[in-house]
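Annex B. Sample input.
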Amino acid sequence: MPRIALGLQYDGRAYQGWQSQTHGQTVQDTLETALHRFATIPINVQCAGRTDTGVHALDQVVHFDVPLERDVHAWVRGVNAFLPDTIAVRWAKDVQLEFHARFDAYRRTYHYLIYNHAVRSPIWAGRAGWYHHPLDVDTMHEAGQALVGEHDFSAFRAAECQAKSPVKTMYRVDVQRYGDAVVVSLSANAFLHHMVRNIVGSLIYIGAGKQPTGWLAFLLQQKNRHLSAPTFSAAGLYLSAIHYPEHYQLPTPCDDFAQALGLA
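Annex B, continued. Sample output.
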C-alpha cells in the first residue's frame, strides 16, 4: 500500500484548529473530505504538528496510506479541486512506508507576525497580531537568545498541554522589523501547547519596556507559567517549516517568512 506525503498551506481563520472534531469545522476534516471525494475511499491523515484555532500554515506536512496507484501530481491537482480557497496542497510525494510526518520531523519553525502600529489595520485582521505601542526589536532579539539551547519551557506551557516533557531544544530565535511589521521566528525540535504565543507575549512585554531584557532567562529558571505574560493572539502565528532527514528527499521548506509574505 503506497504511502503519500503532502505539503499544505492554509489560512486558519475559517477553522477550529487542525484536529478532527465532530462538528467537522477543522483543517483535518476538510482535507480528509477532499481526499475522500478525489480517491472515492475514506482516507485518514497524520500531520507533522496540530495547529490551534486561527493558526495558519505555510508548510504543514501530512502522510497517509492508500490502496490506489496515482501519479503524485494528480494528488495535487485532484485534491485541490475539492478544497476551498483557504487550503491548498502544494506538493505530493511517494515516501517510504516507515516515514511518519510527525515522528520523523527533527525541526519545526514557527513565525509570528505582529502589526506594530498605533491604529489597528483591517488588512491584517486575522493574519497578524496587533500591538499599539512601539516595540524595540533589538531588545526583543537580545532577550530571545536566552531561549536558545535545551531548556525546561514550563514557563511558556499551557495548562492543558499533553506533552510528556517540557524540555525542548530551541535552535533559533530571531526578531526583525519590516516597517510596521515585526516578525518573531522560533525554530526548535518541538513545541509545547501555546509555547510560541506565550513566548511572543513575553517578548512584547520586553519590547514595550514593561520588563527588562533578562526577564526571559528569569522565567526559564522559575518554570512558572503564572509569572510570564498572557498568551498572545493566535492571529499572527504561522507553522512555516518542517524539516526531515535528507534521505526522504522531501521538498526543502522555505525559512524566509518575510519573503513569503512580501515583506522583504
